[in-house]
Amino acid sequence: MLNKILCLLVALCMGLTAAAQENNEARQLLDRVADAFRQAEGVEIAFEVRAPEGTSEGRIRLKGEKFRLDTEGITTWFDGRTQWTYLENSDEVNVSEPTAEELQSINPYAWLSLYKNGYMLKMGEQADPRLHKVMMTASRQGSELQCLILYVDKQTLRPAKLSLVRKGDREAVVVLVRSYQTGQKYDDALFTFDKRAYPTAEVIDLR
């Protein structure tokens, strides 16, 4: 039953068409959400990811374009240009410079700039009166992120849930926000890999 629901979600996203006024309403809401996020300074978010391959929990700390993402067995740092990904099982660190589209599958909050280009926007019907529902559909079939459905708390303008459909996937990935703390003070060093903390790790430069 779950698979059928998710496949229906994908089909709905692929077939979306939006009137100009609907686009404007959705875009204005996302502008407000993005502004609220940027004004919050450092942000710490605990979340749960429900994907076809299983369920996991994690924490992401953000400061502007920088982030540190901690999930089960994997830690990712991004300083705005360079990304380091530590894999606990193999004790190795992969170093890369991801594109904007590649970041979409790593950082759930990359939509803060993503929605401005290449996506059709539409407000969706939402059963929960406390939430807004915004639907984003890629205008190009080759986009890494084909569809994103965002649920936003009406009072705080904070994301409550994200549903993502990636290129080549038939099922959605759902990100549930468990806690959201703003005003955090982070040193820039938090967003870069410190070799001293992982002395035995093999560093693999993929740039």
CATH class: Mainly Beta
Put simply, the count of helices is 4
Whole-number radius of gyration?
A: 17 Å
Percent helix range: 10-25%
- The CATH superfamily is known as Lipoprotein localisation LolA/LolB/LppX
> Helix and strand string, N-terminal first?
HHEEEEEEHHEEEEEE
Tell me what the structure shows.
Strand 3 and strand 4 form a beta hairpin. This protein is an alpha+beta fold. It has a 12-stranded mixed β-sheet with strand order 7-8-9-10-11-1-2-3-4-5-6-12, with helices on both faces. It has one domain: Clam (outer membrane lipoprotein receptor (LolB), chain A). It has 4 helices and 12 strands; from the N terminus they run ααββββββααββββββ.
Summarize the entry for a quick read.
This protein is of the alpha+beta class. It contains four helices and twelve strands; from the N terminus they run ααββββββααββββββ.
